[in-house]
Amino acid sequence: MTAAPIVVEQVVQARLFVTTHRTAVLRVALRYRSDDPLAVRMAFPAEFSLDGTPLPEAPPEVEWVFARWLLAAGLDAPSGIGDVHLRPAASGRTMLELRSAEGVALLQFDGAQLRHFLAETHLAVPEGDEALLLDADRALAELLG
Q: What does the DSSP assignment read for 31-70?
């Protein structure tokens, strides 16, 4: 019998830059699971489009998944791979840029809140111990469907 995974979840506010003169405040759920130790998840409310207008019949949330190390790196220096880019900004803020076929979303977070979340994930699975928790068979099964 395997132990239940450790789950870390924190809800934070983010500012979505809709235009140069308009922003929207969103509640974003940050999630981490010890049974997926390399990844962090950010769940955004799906009721807003990239231009900030409400979407009819939207799913409850849109989840982005990216490497935990990328979050850690982006708190201190510009970092990014593919569709996810992070960088520190003035006044302790952190900027997150998400790119998709639909466009680009630019969000601003309180860097201290992201650091707190990251610290909690490191309590769940210390940095460097991720490989000890990886289940290669499960990951391969998920990849192959």
A: EEETTSTTEEEEEEETTB-TTS-B-TT--SEEEEEEEHHH
